[in-house]
Amino acid sequence: MNVYLIGGAILFSILVLTILIWQKTRTSQFRWALIFILLVGLILRTFVGADSHLHEWDERYHALVSKHLSEHPLKPTLIENPVLAYDQKNWVGNHIWLAKPPLPLWFIALSTTIFGDNVYAVRLPSLIFGLLSIYLTFLIGNYLFDERIGILAAYIHAINGVIIELGGGRISSDHVETAFIFFVELAVVFTIYFFQKKPKYTITIFVGIATGLAFLCKWYPAALVLPIWFFGFISWKNYSFLGLVKHGLLLIVSAAIIGFPWVYYALSYYPAEAKFVLGQIVGAYISAAENHAAPFYYYWKEMLFLFGELIYLAIGLSIYQIIKKRAQSQNILVLVWALLPVIIFSFAETKRHTYLLIAAPAFFILTSQLWFILRDFVKSAKMKWIYYLLMAAMIILPLRLMIERVKFFEQKTQNKFMTSLPDLQKQFNSNTLAFGIDENIELMFYTNVHAAYAKIPNQEKLTELKNQGFDVWCFDGEEWKQFNTTE
């Protein structure tokens, strides 16, 4: 089918749904508005997730490790059966794979177990987590402010181009980051519920559990929940120091009960790999990993591209409201959530724009809050056109980013490997060793080959493997050739 016809139809449907969301919000039909927002999120994420191949960074690695976890859930492996020497520190070519915690990969493993080893099963958990995250953004905006702010924040979340690409596996961290955002949001929801109701220890435990699950997605950044909870606790005023200590310790213990067993297990069974990975966390603040160096102001600049060019205005307004003591506790919580990662990560030598997405919902809420404040100001403003221009820009700019990132009219073609895959699945079996293919990770995911490598070893090694009884195949860039010589 014509790519322009499909892309045009998708864009038109988003436009129609946006109009419906606007109409339902104006008439206070928030439930219907939220349903249409979730439908927007579903359409966009399904479209992006329809790519027929695994993406290079980092989706193919997450997919292969998840495939192996479906067979042995407590042993994360990349190259399941290494026949060549490997570096334990090389996360793209080692055996035991601890580069990311296991929780998102367990969800993918469950999905591929049920639906088979294919890209759609790999992306299904992210589709679900993505839609749930949109809903949680609405809940947070609604709980802290009102339903209108929650609806607009959820809409901005639904159309955010970078987050959509994450769920489709197009950019690094992909499904890991998508699950991480969800569990951090879940912890924030429980945090807000804790403050708006009479503080209960059971709710504190729920905050801790969600934090621990976030830790099992992406390690220490999950600790962001703790300062959010702390500043929320002291700004809500109805607290005591003893209550702060009791609930704080319970939160930390609850999170540790969920997250620490995996750390202990990894250090016990895979000490070399675990120590290296955990050391990298600290090392990220000392030296840049894999050429991901950037200036100190990197994240302040990236906010413009991730959340829109008017995000500074939204931040400034929130600070102004805190100073003027308007909705102070709510604004403090959201501002801490938004800016603390920017500040902390700015001191690290390793910088990547996806690291900021832990705070994405907070930025969406700040933007939504600014829009409605401008709308209220315009009623009495003299130069109304300035306010209308800003309000329009706050919607148009995220839509522009969505269009740029989603690439509605880009031709999706299968590469040579995917075209040849059906023949390879018939040709190769569990006794096969494949060498010389750049898509070695994909080959191990889609087939049951014993092992596959991008490089071809020397003649002596090939002969040794052949004598061990393996079917050895080498790809010369054009065709596959079976290695038969015993020289």
Give a description of the structure:
- The chain is mainly alpha-helical and 487 residues long.
- It folds into two domains: 3-406, no CATH class; 416-482.
- It has 20 helices and four strands.
- A four-stranded mixed beta sheet has the order 2-1-3-4, sandwiched between helices.
- Strand 1, helix 19 (440-446) and strand 2 (451-453) form a beta-alpha-beta unit.
- The N and C termini lie far apart (52 Å).
- The mean pLDDT is 92.
Radius of gyration from CA coordinates? 25 Å
Number of domains: 2
- Count the helices. How many? 20
Total DSSP E strands? 4
* Helix vs. strand class: mainly alpha
Report the end-to-end length measured between terminal Cα atoms: 52 Å
Run of helices and strands: HHHHHHHHHHHHHHHHHHEHEHEE
Strand order of the largest sheet: 2-1-3-4
Largest sheet: 4 strands, mixed
Helix content: 55-70%
Shape: globular
Q: Low-confidence runs (pLDDT<50, min 5 residues)?
A: none
Descriptive labels:
20 helices, four-stranded mixed sheet, 2 domains, mainly alpha, globular, 487 residues
Reconstruct the topology from this structure.
Blueprint: H1 3-26, H2 30-48, H3 59-69, H4 103-115, H5 119-144, H6 147-159, H7 161-167, H8 174-196, H9 201-218, H10 225-235, H11 241-269, H12 271-283, H13 298-307, H14 311-323, H15 328-346, H16 360-378, H17 384-406, H18 416-427, E1 432-435, H19 440-446, E2 451-453, H20 459-467, E3 471-475, E4 480-482
Parallel strand pairs: 1-2, 1-3
Antiparallel strand pairs: 3-4
Short description:
The protein is mainly alpha-helical and 487 residues long. It has helices at 3-26, 30-48, 59-69, 103-115, 119-144, 147-159, 161-167, 174-196, 201-218, 225-235, 241-269, 271-283, 298-307, 311-323, 328-346, 360-378, 384-406, 416-427, 440-446, 459-467; strands at residues 432-435, 451-453, 471-475, 480-482. Helix 3 (59-69) runs parallel beside helix 19.
